Each structure stands twice: as structure tokens, then as C-alpha cells.
Amino acid sequence: MQSEVSEVSAIKRELKSATAATKSKKPGKNRRRVVQDRVEIKGFRRGKAPVSVIQGQYKNEIQRQVTEVLLEEGVESAMREHQLVPVGPLERASEELPTPEVGQPITFAVQFEVRPQITLGTYKGLAVKKPTAVSGDSEVERELDKFAAAPRSWCR
Prior knowledge:
Blueprint: E1 2-7, E2 12-20, H1 26-38, H2 51-82, E3 91-92, E4 105-113, H3 137-149
Antiparallel strand pairs: 1-2, 2-4, 3-4
Helix pairs in contact: 1-2
């Protein structure tokens, strides 16, 4: 698999990747089985229709599901390869799924946000003046008078 990461902004990255369309036949078999178990075809019990009939009637749906599975695996693999951790949802560059041709790689692009790189300035050795609170007897007496004059509805 080939993939490259480009920086769109300080926190946004774009991942362009190409993954093999026919890496294995397992996703296709799994998706056919899911469709076969779910659909009702006249003349057959649910889940018992032959694979050739399922492929004939639901070819586009199966192909779309297989493509989605391959894209998810490709994105996950590329993220691990480039050690990227997205902090938000992935956005596809185009809404329509690529249609893989036999033997040709599926190319796709996704954009996502990552944590910003923060560099700390010099903070050691800074002088900080600690304020001191000094209150005199007159200030204390004034606050006590405020409490004495306040209504006592909270005491009931």
C-alpha cells in the first residue's frame, strides 16, 4: 500500500492512499453472506438462495460494501504506518465511493484533524511575586456588620 500525508492547515491533515482492490476474497464472501442472510428472493427460503442469484441481483450493493470495508482497512493501516491519531471524524475528499477494477488499486483521500503541535516558551526562572492579604480590624468589623444587617430568611 502506498500512502502520503499532506498538511492542509496547522491541525488538519489529508491522507492519500492506494490499497489493493483484490487483497483477499474474504470481504466479498462475508458481504455476500450478509446479503444472502438478509434478503428474500422468490422461490427460496431466507438465507438459502444460491450465491449466483445473490450476486446477479445485488452485485452493486455487495461491491459497495466490499469497497467500504477495503477503504476502512486501508485508512486504518495508513494511520498506523504514519502514526497519526485523528481527534475528529474522517471526511472523505469525494462523497462517491471509488469503483475498483480487478487488479487495480483503490485510491482515496480523507481529511481529518489532529492535535496541534504546541511548543512551550521559557518558563523556568521567572520571578513571581506572591501577593499578601492584610486585613485590619476595621475591615473585619465592617464585614461583620454586613452579616448582622442582612435578613435571616435562610435560618428558618
